[in-house]
Amino acid sequence: MADPFGVAGGAPPAERGGEQPARLFVSGRGAPSIPESLPPLDDFSADDLVRELQRRYMGIPAAVLQNRDVLNLLLPTLRADLRLLEPYTYQPEDPLPCPVSAFGGRQDPNVTAETLAAWQRETTGAFRLRLFPGGHFFPQQVPGLLAAATREDLAGVLAPGADGAAWPPRGGS
Fold first, then answer.
1. Positive or negative, the Cα torsion across 46, 48, 51, 55?
2. SS (HEC) of 58-119
3. H or E element in which residue 52 lies
4. In this structure, is residue 126 part of a structural domain?
5. Each residue of 65-95: pLDDT tens digit?
């Protein structure tokens, strides 16, 4: 059996099958069963895309907005993310057996506590919802709080078990 692992992300869930994570961490995205309420962005012109991303998420730093060369380097990656995320269609499946932690920003106007709480229906394991100060990009504003919450939630599932292994491992790889 492989070592226990956790999975973190804000994109639609990966295919279910194979080994399950010790805990799934989701952030910045409501449960997959909640339909997206915002129109797709993939077809926007570069300028319109930047304006709409700022309006929705307020997450592009001013230094990037002021440097067109840097912005042009980032736009293809943003568009690739959108091409993966936007066409996703929820297909009901059995709930995951692993615990789920859902994280969000209290001031995120698009991902609410209600849409994050819907992740509870996606698991038969424990569920924990945590809201942090900030908007959609709250991890940039409170990285220490997020790291502490992640460690705490991992400790709950990766505590010393039958094999006596401690988490996190100490003193080596």
1. negative
2. CCCCHHHHCCHHHHHHHHHHHHHHHHHHCCCCCCCCCCECCCEEEEEECCCCCCCHHHHHHH
3. helix 46-57
4. yes
5. 999 999 999 999 989 988 888 888 899 999 9
User: pLDDT tens for residues 126-137?
Assistant: 999 999 999 999
At residue 14's C-alpha, the angle toward residues 25 and 162, to 5°, is 55
Tokens of 15: 């295919």
β partners of residue 9: 26
Q: Which of 101, 106, 111 is nearest to 148 (CA)?
A: 101
* Contact status, residue 54 vs residue 109, Cβ threshold 8 Å: no
How many domains are contained in the chain? 2
Angle at 145 between CA 78 and CA 147, to 5 degrees: 70
Note whether residue 92 is domain-resident: no
Quote the domain boundaries for residue 110.
Answer: 19-32+97-157
Separation between Cα atoms, residue 32 and residue 116, nearest integer Å: 10
Q: Is residue 138 part of a domain?
A: yes
In a domain, 14, yes or no: no
Same structural domain, 25 and 52? no
* pTM as predicted: 0.78
